[in-house]
Amino acid sequence: MITLALAGFIVGILSSISGLGGGFMIVPLLIFLGREAKLAVGTSFVFILVVAISSILSHYRFGNLDIKTGLTLGLGGIIGAQIGPQVLQYVSEQNFKRIFAVLLAITAAWIFVDSKS
């Protein structure tokens, strides 16, 4: 329990700084701790929800919030969030891990390249 709380603390800091939500760190952590990939994904959204609410309040205080854009993105996200878990039901554990790893690598490469400009 303490390990999970400490991991949540660290990921909470990193996700509120980066805006990446934390799922990209929580999912691999939960898989490493023996959780099934699909359970790790679902569980990470509970973490993301709690951290997002806290981050929204903090970013609002600093004026770092475009509510209209966020809500517009969120509307599309609501629809996508209903489709994603349905698709995930047809993806094997092994293929999920491979797809997730590729997405992380592409994201890392993009951020790395973008940081040079």
Keywords for this structure?
117 residues; mainly alpha; 0% strand; globular
Largest sheet: none
H and E order = HHHHH
Distance between the termini: 41 Å
Average pLDDT score: 90
Brief synopsis:
The protein is mostly helical and about 120 residues long.
Set out the fold topology.
Layout: H1 2-18, H2 23-32, H3 37-61, H4 67-88, H5 93-115
Helix pairs in contact: 1-3, 2-3
How would you describe what is shown here?
With 117 residues, the protein is mostly helical. It has one domain. Helices cover 83% and strands 0% of the residues. The chain contains 5 helices and no strands. Helix 2 runs antiparallel to helix 3 (37-61).
